[in-house]
Automatic annotation (TrEMBL):
Membrane-crossing residue ranges in chain numbering: none
Gene Ontology process terms (BP): axon guidance; brain development
Gene Ontology cellular-component terms listed: axon; plasma membrane; synapse
Record's protein name: Cell adhesion molecule DSCAML1
Keyword Cell membrane: yes
Subunit structure: Homodimer; mediates homophilic interactions to promote cell adhesion.
Species for this entry: Panthera pardus (Leopard)
A matching Pfam family: fn3
Compartments reported by the entry: Cell membrane; Synapse
PROSITE patterns: FN3, IG_LIKE
Matching InterPro entries: FN3_dom, FN3_sf, Ig-like_dom, Ig-like_dom_sf, Ig-like_fold, Ig_I-set, Ig_sub, Ig_sub2
Signal peptide range in chain numbering: 1-18
Molecular function GO labels: cell-cell adhesion mediator activity
Region (Disordered): 452-471, 1204-1245
Length: 1245
């Protein structure tokens, strides 16, 4: 902080003090110093200053010139708002659209001005933003930067980043810095699968741009030394803000990062945060300035980035006092304190006018930070501003100073009272004045000496009131009397008095003689002490007073003489105090009357330069001796000023032998004697006929610029100046008064200001001055209007076709010679260095035509070209926005989603060729085909940026590309993308399905793969469904699955039911699902032997050699084939355990009669069913015994027996031996004999 130096003033100077003066001026936004706006939008700028009650608001250029309305271009509204309307580049005027303005607010309190405000228009320029592809090792950091053209970098900022068209939210591994960089930490392989874009926004036009999509190439870690990816150089940042110092490195092993400031490691500070993006410092302080080094190190080496950070304290100005009301003649001190950079300059303003030091005003301090006003006058009132400027930064503060008549006045006082001896009392007196007065105390006209019992204190309140207390401790009788408080300042004085009585025996203090001044009032106190007493009376010449209207005796005994007269009031006065009914005490006092000087009125006669002037100052009365002196404008008149003073006893004369302008002023005659000092002031006005201080001379004016026709006159009274104009270049014929409009006005020095010189202003001008003294004067001059180089014709916008020649024409006029220079952007075009450009210039009457030829136009020519016309009187510029049209760049195509039969595309149109996109075409084909066999989707609406391509074949590889169109033509094809559709379930069934029964419980299924074009992917396997089609089956398929092995497949179904019909279907499947089934084919398993014996087998012995065997059919489900018949097997069991011959009988019936059996013999019997496949399971062994032999009659009593003879073939096999004869268990009784023989089996029908 740079403190203000305060001046030490002598104690005799009365300092002014602050007081609330109810300021009515203020700033709404005094920090507004830059307004940048889009030329296509315009801008509205409210006045930063205001007032209450309402203030008059006005706008000025920084030069101090008033601004005026320009229809449809600039307007100042009634509320003080400045509006600049939208305009085309050709209407650009730096005087209006790129200039410094300020606004003022004025009311009764004064006038304040804002800091200069830079108002600047920016144009809409075509631009693109880019992001470059990056490389990074896995695990490292990747940094993407949004590359913005330098021509718009000031106005364009990064607002977001996208990853695959989805906005990136900073979290996890993704970071976005304040300067718009995208950082990806811990890079992974999948990061290379995405595209990254930055989105920017123009600060003033609001336009957004999207960059191209950039890719990240991710490599495997490889040992390497560190490399700095993102560093910094130098930055200037405001204190209190946050700054990011970027520093990111790549390498392997991953580098360690260390920060140093001024060569030392960073101290611990919570404001410093190390991030993956670099170092962040918040709440910046000036001590954070310095050189920062970012060191990155790994085992293979190191690298560093170095930069300088400068922290700037914003300028802050405080002006004290803020509000000041003080008296005329006071000393005013304004102190301007600054916080911020030391490199500043200070300027002082009063009511928006620059303060210039003079006799009363001085600017002091090492940096002009103190304003001192001595003997301040009413004219010094107003609004004072302290402006501090550092480079492009300005800060200010203001104060309101009010100067008024500051004669003191008593605003509060004490009353008369009676106290007892020893009873403490306090008296208070409050006074106001400007400057604040000082209060003194007296007792019975004697100043009170501060002692142990009398103490005073005083202080000044914030409103300027001085409060003083007189405290009396342990009062005695002598402390009674008339107490008077007197308030004095440099302007005057005021007093108040009242009696304080202390109880005790009354007495009168010795009275001191009094000197009164004739014509003034005098108070005479009877210096009585003690109380009580009955009365106080005054006598003069034995007469009880009052005895005339000028005498007043107050209740407290004070005698007042008004308008004292020497002859009548001078003499002895007696104060008589009645202390008892018959007892009085008295004291006398002599009053002497002094007569002050009385100056007779005098006047200065009208005087003209060179005249002799004699002015007497005569004192007509007053006690002698009288001293008479003269002053001019408050200063002693010194010798050598042309003024002679002659003084006598009661007269002094002022003589001027030759009056001149320097003698103008206020002259004061001062007469002094023992009684008083009086003065009389009169003004001498020297009438001077007008004369030229600066004569008009012929001069040049520049068209469009401000011109001042010099003519300065003086005289007294101040001459009235009139300007007249006669058009034409010949001899002036007739002069006409110059109309004083917003464009022309007469300045304070009488010169004529033409704000914007026009060609019609050329001609003779006459400056004529008169003031009623002497003869009018006049002088003529001729104004020649020089035409600065002006662009009179040029296209605002024009279009070229890329690859074709283009001519830009620019026409200028003005004083010759005229040079025309062409610029592209901010670069001067030099055809000798860039052969593609050619410039040709020719005269065309009073104009010059320059042609810039582009051979041919290129994309980079889509910028603002400017032609600059220059001559000795000025320069003008014409802006031409050239748009080079061409077929658009191909769209940037992305595959959003790929399915089996469709894919979703999204595209971004980058450069549109500066022509509206009219449509898109999409082409795709099988990758193996040529583009001659492509399929197309054409004339896609330009408002669409995504599409679905359908009817694709699953599990196929396609190539796809796009074109965009504008009215110029078709773009090149986009980058060809290759996609593979997903698999889909097969569309066709397996072919040539056949069934071949293999066994009674298995069927072999054979088939071929579906058609190739219907497989929709790689056939991974098959599902074989089979079901039994026999009556009563549930009809549900059982499914078995097998992996595919080739084009032909075989599968055997096992564990089927025997001799059952089965339906079989086959389905192919791939990763996506299962295809349709083949048609059902039926097959029956081979026959097998019955798996269960006949049921309900019974044996009944009929006779001794006949038995009947019956049974029922086995369950049909157990036949396992076509039942061919039954076989009955029987054999005899002998008592000795031997088996007889085993015999069998075949029949298709379910009953058989066995004849020829041995009598009364045990038999074992089994029955089985048989099919084509053979004999089934035998029934359990059934035992039967033939009956004993009996009579025939008895036999005949039985039911008829079946008599049969074998018919057909009988098979005979050798009789088995006993050891190998089949049996199930040993007979319960051994057979009586062995009867084995050849075994015979026959079929019975």
């Amino acid at each position: 902080m740079w403190l203000v130096t305060f001046l030490l003033l002598l104690d005799s100077l009365h300092k002014a003090r602050p007081e609330d003066v109810g300021t009515s001026l203020y700033f709404v936004n005094d920090s507004l110093q830059q307004v940048t706006f889009s030329s296509s939008v315009g801008v509205v700028v409210p006045c930063p200053a205001a007032g209450s009650p309402s203030a008059a608001l006005r706008w000025y250029l920084a030069t101090g010139d008033d601004i005026y309305d320009v229809p449809h271009i600039r307007h100042v509204h009634a509320n003080g708002t400045l509006q600049l309307y939208p305009f085309s580049p050709s209407a650009f005027n730096s005087f209006i659209h790129d200039n410094d303005y300020f606004c003022t607010a004025e009311n009764a309190a004064g006038k304040i001005r804002s800091p200069n405000i830079r108002v600047k228009a920016v144009f809409r320029e075509p631009y693109t933003v880019r992001v470059e592809d990056q490389r990074s090792m896995r695990g490292n950091v990747a940094v993407f930067k949004c590359l913005i053209p330098s021509s718009v970098q000031e106005y364009v900022s990064v607002v977001s980043w996208e990853k695959d068209t989805v906005s990136i939210i900073p979290e996890n591994r993704f970071f976005i810095t304040h300067h718009g960089g995208l950082y990806i930490s811990d890079v992974q392989k999948e990061d290379a699968l995405s595209t990254y874009r930055c989105i920017t926004k123009h600060k003033y036009s609001g336009e957004t741009r999207q960059s191209n999509g950039a890719r990240l190439s991710v490599t495997d870690p490889a040992e390497s030394i560190p490399t700095i990816l993102d560093g910094f150089h130098s930055q200037e940042v405001w204190a209190g803000h946050t700054v990011e110092l970027p520093c990111t490195a790549s390498g392997y092993p991953i580098p360690a990062i260390r920060w140093l400031k001024d060569g030392r490691p960073l101290p611990a500070d919570s404001r410093w945060t190390k991030r993956i993006t670099g170092l962040t410092i918040s709440d910046l302080r000036t001590e954070d300035s310095g050189t920062y080094i970012c060191e990155v190190t790994n085992t293979f080496g190191s690298a560093e980035a170095t930069g300088t950070l400068t922290v700037i304290d914003p300028l802050h100005v405080t002006l004290t006092p803020k509000k000041l009301k003080t008296g005329i003649g006071s000393t005013v001190i304004l102190s301007c304190a600054l916080l911020g950079s030391p490199e500043f300059t200070i300027r002082w303003y009063r009511n928006t006018e620059l303060v210039l030091p003079d006799e009363a005003v001085s600017i002091r301090g090492l940096s002009n930070e103190t304003l001192l006003i001595t003997s301040a006058q009413k004219s010094h009132s107003g609004a004072y501003q302290c402006f501090a400027t550092r480079k492009a930064q300005t800060a200010q503060d203001f104060a309101i100073i009010v100067l008024e008549d500051g004669t003191p006045r008593i605003v509060s006082s004490f009353s008369e009272k009676v106290v007892n001896p020893g009873e403490q009392f306090s008296l208070m007196c409050a006074a106001k004045g400007a400057p604040p007065p000082t209060v003194t105390w007296a007792l019975d006209d004697e100043p009170i000496v501060r002692d142990g019992s009398h103490r005073t204190n005083q202080h000044t309140m914030s409103d300027g009131t001085t409060i003083s207390h007189m405290n009396v401790t342990g009062p005695q009788i002598r402390d009674g009397g008339v107490y008077r408080c007197t308030a004095r300042n440099s302007v005057g004085s005021a007093e108040y008095q009242a009696r304080i009585n202390v109880r005790g025996p009354p007495s009168i203090r010795a009275m001191k003689n009094i000197t009164a001044v004739a014509g003034r009032d005098t108070l005479i106190n009877c210096r009585v002490i003690g109380y009580p007493y009955y009365s106080i009376k005054w006598y003069k010449d034995a007469l009880l007073l009052p005895d005339n209207h000028r005498q007043v005796v107050f209740e407290n005994g004070t005698l007042k003489l008004t308008d004292v007269q020497k002859g009548m009031d001078e003499g002895e006065y007696l104060c008589s105090v009645l202390i008892q009914p018959q007892l009085s005490i008295s004291q006398s006092v002599h009053v002497a009357v002094k007569v002050p000087p009385l100056i007779q009125p005098f006047e200065f006669p009208p005087a003209s330069i060179g005249q002799l002037l004699y002015i007497p100052c005569v004192v007509s009365s007053g006690d002698m001796p009288i001293r008479i002196t003269w002053r001019k404008d408050g200063q002693v008149i010194i010798s050598g000023s042309g003024v002679t003073i002659e003084s006598k006893e009661f007269m002094s004369s002022l003589q001027i032998s030759s009056v001149s302008l320097k003698h103008n002023g206020n002259y004061t005659c001062i007469a002094s004697n023992a009684a008083a000092t009086v003065s009389r002031e009169r003004q001498l006005i020297v009438r001077v006929p007008p004369r030229f201080v600066v004569q008009p001379n012929n001069q040049d004016g520049i068209y469009g610029k401000a011109g001042v026709l010099n003519c300065s006159v003086d005289g007294y009274p101040p001459p009235k100046v009139m300007w007249k104009h006669a058009k034409g270049s010949g001899s002036p014929q007739q002069y006409h008064p110059v109309p004083l409009t917003g464009r022309t006005q007469i300045l304070a020095n009488s010169s004529l200001l033409i704000r914007h010189v026009l060609e019609e202003d050329m001609g003779y001008y006459l400056c004529q001055a008169s003031n009623g003294v002497g003869t009018d004067i006049s002088k003529s001059m001729f104004l020649t209007v020089k035409i600065p180089a002006m662009i009179t014709s040029h296209p605002n916008t024009t279009i070229a076709i890329k690859g074709h020649a283009k001519e830009l024409n620019c026409t200028a006029r003005g004083e010759r010679p005229i040079i025309i220079r062409w610029e592209k952007g901010d670069t001067v075009i030099d055809p000798d260095r860039v052969m593609r450009y050619a410039i040709a210039t020719k005269d065309n009457g009073d104009e010059v035509v320059s042609t810039l030829k582009l051979k041919p136009a290129d994309r980079g020519d889509s910028v603002f070209f400017s032609c600059h016309a220059i001559n000795s009187y000025g320069e003008d510029r014409g802006l031409i926005q050239l748009t080079v049209q061409e077929p658009p760049d191909p769209p940037e195509l992305e595959i959003r989603e790929v399915k089996a039969r469709s894919m979703n595309l999204r595209w971004t149109q980058r450069f549109d060729g500066n022509s509206i996109i009219t449509g898109f075409d999409i082409e795709y084909k099988n990758k193996s085909d040529s583009w001659d066999f492509k399929q197309s989707t054409r004339n896609i609406s330009p408002t669409i940026n995504q599409a679905n391509i359908v009817d694709l074949h699953p599990a196929s590889v396609y190539s796809i590309r796009m074109y965009s169109f504008n009215k110029i033509g078709r773009s090149e094809p986009s980058k060809e993308l290759t996609i593979s559709t997903e698999e889909a379930a097969p569309d066709g069934p397996p072919m040539d399905v056949t069934l071949q029964p293999v066994t009674s419980q298995s069927i072999q299924v054979t088939w071929k793969a579906p058609k190739k074009e219907l497989q929709n992917g790689v056939i991974r396997g098959y599902q074989i469904g089979y079901r039994e089609n026999s009556p009563g089956s549930n009809g549900q398929y059982s499914i078995v699955e097998m992996k595919a092995t080739g084009d032909s497949e075989v599968y055997t179904l096992d564990n089927l039911k025997k001799f059952a019909q089965y339906g079989v279907v086959v389905q192919a499947f791939n990763r996506a699902g299962t295809g349709p089934s083949s048609s059902e084919i039926n097959a029956t398993t081979l026959e097998d032997v019955p798996s269960q014996p006949p049921e309900n087998v019974r044996a009944l012995s009929i006779t001794s050699d006949v038995a009947v065997i019956s049974w029922s059919e086995p369950p049909r489900s157990t036949l396992n084939g076509v039942l061919k018949g039954y076989r009955v097997i029987f054999w005899s069991l002998y008592v000795d355990g031997e088996w007889g011959e085993m015999q069998n009988i075949t029949t298709t019936r379910e009953r058989v009669e066995l004849r020829g059996m041995e009598k009364f013999t045990n038999y074992s019997v089994q029955v089985l069913a048989y099919t084509q496949a053979g004999d089934g399971v035998r029934s359990s062994v059934l035992y039967i015994q033939t009956k004993e032999d009996g009579f025939l009659g008895r036999l005949q009593a039985e039911p008829p027996a079946l008599m049969w003879r074998p018919k057909g073939d009988c098979a005979q096999s050798p009789a088995p031996s006993r050891a190998s004869a089949p049996h199930t268990r040993a007979p319960s009784q051994p057979p009586e004999r062995n009867h084995w023989g050849p075994q015979t089996s026959c079929s019975l029908f």
